[in-house]
Amino acid sequence: MKPPLHGLIAEFETARELLAATRRAYAAGYRRMDAYSPFPVPELPEALGVHHDRVALVTLAGAILGGASGYALQWWINTIAYPLNIGGRPLHAWPAFIIVTFEMTILFGGIAALFGMLALNGLPLLHHPIFNAPGFESASRDRFFLCIEAVDPRFEPQGTRVFLQELRPARVVEVAN
Questions:
Q1: What is the model's pLDDT at position 177?
Q2: Are residues 137 and 113 in the same domain?
Q3: Which of 42, 96, 128, 150 is deepest in the core (most CB within 10 A)?
Q4: Tens-digit pLDDT profile for residues 144-160
């Protein structure tokens, strides 16, 4: 069951304030939070605790699967299913398999990267509750927002509101689900 509240969002006027608030929230133990900015803030992902890229592992797994399946398919066709002894050449001629193996590695890696990125980002997402927050449209112009989600283990509506107020934002608003 989803909580009736998506979270609390604090609005800041500068990127420096947002970065300081994000670092304090992370130090206070909040882990399920997100920051919104009209331009990239290089230190923000680290402050949010985003240190790993699982898309790279999904891509690697897809590439290995593609390469192995491409090679295995060629080996099976040439040695088991339709062995042709032409001019005394070996049935398992691995140099001839390299091109298809390489192409299957790239194809499966690319497809795995696409679908892995979509799945890990929770896409397609037709609507996000954060868009209902009053004033959030200025996140693409001149304001900075920090949202602590209600699914965070440390989230307690009143306690989190007090914590966010201590960070001196322009305002703190509830975001309904």
A1: 85
A2: no
A3: 150
A4: 999 999 999 999 999 99
* C-beta of residue 20 within 8 angstroms of C-beta of residue 164: no
pLDDT value, residue 3: 59
The total of other beta-carbon atoms located within 10 Å of residue 33's CB is: 22
Residue 163 in contact with residue 25, Cβ under 8 Å? yes
Task: Dihedral sign for Cα 141, 145, 150, 153, please.
Answer: positive
Domain membership of residue 113 as a residue range: 54-120
Q: Which of 103, 120, 137 is the last residue of a domain?
A: 120
Distance (Å, whole) CA 106 – CA 137: 40
User: Could you give the C-alpha distances from 67 to 13, 44, 58, 97, 103, in angstroms and in order?
Assistant: 50, 37, 14, 10, 8
Task: In whole angstroms, give the CA distance from residue 63 to residue 104.
Answer: 8
